[in-house]
Amino acid sequence: MKNSLVLATLFAAVALAACSKTEAPAPAPAPAPATTVVVPPAPAPAPDAGAAAAAGAANNAAASANNAAGAANASAGSADSAAKAAADAASAAKK
Questions:
Q1: How do residues 6-30 score in pLDDT, each as one tens digit?
Q2: What residue range is the signal peptide (predicted)?
């Protein structure tokens, strides 16, 4: 009898839970409109004469380095051609 009472109580609880009304969740409140604050940009600083001189000096140094690299490349090319001529001469001497 005890088991049947527990089973009947369980069945009644399931039936009441299945037949109960469900409440729809409350709609979320609309977000408040965003307020935008416009901040004017800061004025650009005046160009520095020392910075311009340093940039010019750096540009001149870069040009000088480029010229030196070109000269080194040219001398490497002439050394390569001299080595090739020597190898050709040695090859011709073997024949």
A1: 889 888 888 877 776 667 777 777 7
A2: 1-17
